[in-house]
Amino acid sequence: MTPYDPDPSAPGLGPGGDRLVTAAADGEDRAVEAALRPKDLAEFIGQERVREQLSLVLQAARQRGATPDHVLLSGPPGLGKTTLSMIIAAEMNAPIRITSGPAIQHAGDLAAILSSLTEGEVLFLDEIHRMSRPAEEMLYMAMEDFRVDVIVGKGPGATAIPLELPPFTLVGATTRAGLLPPPLRDRFGFTGHMEFYAPAELERVLHRSARLLDLDIDPAGAAEIAGRSRGTPRIANRLLRRVRDYAQVKHDGRITPEIAAQALDVYEVDGRGLDRLDRAVLDVLLRLFGGGPVGLSTLAVAVGEESETVEEVAEPFLVREGLLARTPRGRIATAAAWQHLGLTPPAAPPGPRPPLPAQQDLFGLPGGPPAEG
């Protein structure tokens, strides 16, 4: 079996070699999301609990005539954290400033942004867990007291100049809430965790997107796409655009379940949302290693990828789907993985070697060890 060798021009990969089923956003996704993004909470689909709780926070702030508490949104990418931040600004009729944690590597970067905020403005900080530690410490005081101390000069002559800030609302988004230090996490007045979408919710998302894109989609066609979207609206919208292309070129433009299935087969996204990388990991694990256990580095070498790629890109969805499990001894495939690839598991995995009988030497001869002479 040949190792998995990703080809940027392969149909299963998006522009620049990105996977079609990745939840990360590229330039095209951002442009389309801007057109498809709901403008208020009533139009936002899914995340019922977070939406209800956030609605109470915003309504109470409007009644008091005050800025809302700082908001932390956590969860996997592609579920609507950026959209909710824009909705918060729209609901409060306030401007929004968008930046990200990796872009703030010095306290001075954050001070420049905070000092230019206007009263009531929403500051959206994506991937907030990747912000530098000096900037984090400056953010503590800014969130709690609406004040920052700007250090002027170096060494013994350095002077701290206090800078008062207008009241603002910080909306932080993170895919790894556990990496946030407790002092920062505790300063958020509201924390919402975004969950993966159910297929029925994704169907509603697809029907809304198809209506905005002026597409003719059959309800069963939307269900076919939703079932392969990994519970993520961003992926669902991306697959919808690729199915639209196929239906436009190969057929009359109407998206039926048969056309949707044909299109996604062309892009190598199977019925459960697995792409070529996912299936390559499972195929190697099952065919070469009998279902495991096998170490991560060995598995990565067998599919021709880096260990980080297998661990962070392929494994999370395979584990969530119950196709792969992580154990202290290594990765193992589940019964569902054998069934999904149409393979038959071994009758009985080899067990440990039975111990030797009491009166038997290492060569299987009776009599035990020779007498000392």
From TrEMBL:
<feature type="binding site">
    <location>
        <position position="197"/>
    </location>
    <ligand>
        <name>ATP</name>
    </ligand>
</feature>
<dbReference type="InterPro" id="IPR036390">
    <property type="entry name" value="WH_DNA-bd_sf"/>
</dbReference>
<dbReference type="InterPro" id="IPR027417">
    <property type="entry name" value="P-loop_NTPase"/>
</dbReference>
<dbReference type="Pfam" id="PF05491">
    <property type="entry name" value="WHD_RuvB"/>
</dbReference>
<comment type="similarity">
    <text>Belongs to the RuvB family.</text>
</comment>
<feature type="compositionally biased region" description="Pro residues">
    <location>
        <begin position="346"/>
        <end position="357"/>
    </location>
</feature>
<dbReference type="GO" id="GO:0006281">
    <property type="term" value="P:DNA repair"/>
</dbReference>
<feature type="region of interest" description="Large ATPase domain (RuvB-L)">
    <location>
        <begin position="17"/>
        <end position="197"/>
    </location>
</feature>
<feature type="binding site">
    <location>
        <position position="78"/>
    </location>
    <ligand>
        <name>ATP</name>
    </ligand>
</feature>
<keyword id="KW-0234">DNA repair</keyword>
<comment type="function">
    <text>The RuvA-RuvB-RuvC complex processes Holliday junction (HJ) DNA during genetic recombination and DNA repair, while the RuvA-RuvB complex plays an important role in the rescue of blocked DNA replication forks via replication fork reversal (RFR). RuvA specifically binds to HJ cruciform DNA, conferring on it an open structure. The RuvB hexamer acts as an ATP-dependent pump, pulling dsDNA into and through the RuvAB complex. RuvB forms 2 homohexamers on either side of HJ DNA bound by 1 or 2 RuvA tetramers; 4 subunits per hexamer contact DNA at a time.</text>
</comment>
<feature type="domain" description="AAA+ ATPase">
    <location>
        <begin position="67"/>
        <end position="200"/>
    </location>
</feature>
<dbReference type="Pfam" id="PF17864">
    <property type="entry name" value="AAA_lid_4"/>
</dbReference>
<dbReference type="GO" id="GO:0005524">
    <property type="term" value="F:ATP binding"/>
</dbReference>
<keyword id="KW-0233">DNA recombination</keyword>
<comment type="subunit">
    <text>Homohexamer. Forms an RuvA(8)-RuvB(12)-Holliday junction (HJ) complex. HJ DNA is sandwiched between 2 RuvA tetramers; dsDNA enters through RuvA and exits via RuvB. An RuvB hexamer assembles on each DNA strand where it exits the tetramer. Each RuvB hexamer is contacted by two RuvA subunits (via domain III) on 2 adjacent RuvB subunits; this complex drives branch migration. In the full resolvosome a probable DNA-RuvA(4)-RuvB(12)-RuvC(2) complex forms which resolves the HJ.</text>
</comment>
<keyword id="KW-0547">Nucleotide-binding</keyword>
<dbReference type="GO" id="GO:0000400">
    <property type="term" value="F:four-way junction DNA binding"/>
</dbReference>
<dbReference type="GO" id="GO:0005737">
    <property type="term" value="C:cytoplasm"/>
</dbReference>
<feature type="binding site">
    <location>
        <begin position="144"/>
        <end position="146"/>
    </location>
    <ligand>
        <name>ATP</name>
    </ligand>
</feature>
<feature type="binding site">
    <location>
        <position position="36"/>
    </location>
    <ligand>
        <name>ATP</name>
    </ligand>
</feature>
<dbReference type="GO" id="GO:0009378">
    <property type="term" value="F:four-way junction helicase activity"/>
</dbReference>
<feature type="binding site">
    <location>
        <position position="187"/>
    </location>
    <ligand>
        <name>ATP</name>
    </ligand>
</feature>
<dbReference type="InterPro" id="IPR041445">
    <property type="entry name" value="AAA_lid_4"/>
</dbReference>
<keyword id="KW-0963">Cytoplasm</keyword>
<feature type="region of interest" description="Disordered">
    <location>
        <begin position="1"/>
        <end position="21"/>
    </location>
</feature>
<feature type="binding site">
    <location>
        <position position="37"/>
    </location>
    <ligand>
        <name>ATP</name>
    </ligand>
</feature>
<dbReference type="InterPro" id="IPR008823">
    <property type="entry name" value="RuvB_wg_C"/>
</dbReference>
<dbReference type="InterPro" id="IPR003593">
    <property type="entry name" value="AAA+_ATPase"/>
</dbReference>
<feature type="binding site">
    <location>
        <position position="234"/>
    </location>
    <ligand>
        <name>ATP</name>
    </ligand>
</feature>
<dbReference type="GO" id="GO:0016887">
    <property type="term" value="F:ATP hydrolysis activity"/>
</dbReference>
<feature type="binding site">
    <location>
        <position position="331"/>
    </location>
    <ligand>
        <name>DNA</name>
    </ligand>
</feature>
<feature type="binding site">
    <location>
        <position position="82"/>
    </location>
    <ligand>
        <name>Mg(2+)</name>
    </ligand>
</feature>
<dbReference type="InterPro" id="IPR004605">
    <property type="entry name" value="DNA_helicase_Holl-junc_RuvB"/>
</dbReference>
<feature type="region of interest" description="Disordered">
    <location>
        <begin position="343"/>
        <end position="373"/>
    </location>
</feature>
<protein>
    <recommendedName>
        <fullName>Holliday junction branch migration complex subunit RuvB</fullName>
        <ecNumber>3.6.4.-</ecNumber>
    </recommendedName>
</protein>
<dbReference type="InterPro" id="IPR008824">
    <property type="entry name" value="RuvB-like_N"/>
</dbReference>
<keyword id="KW-0378">Hydrolase</keyword>
<dbReference type="InterPro" id="IPR036388">
    <property type="entry name" value="WH-like_DNA-bd_sf"/>
</dbReference>
<dbReference type="GO" id="GO:0006310">
    <property type="term" value="P:DNA recombination"/>
</dbReference>
<feature type="binding site">
    <location>
        <position position="81"/>
    </location>
    <ligand>
        <name>ATP</name>
    </ligand>
</feature>
<keyword id="KW-0347">Helicase</keyword>
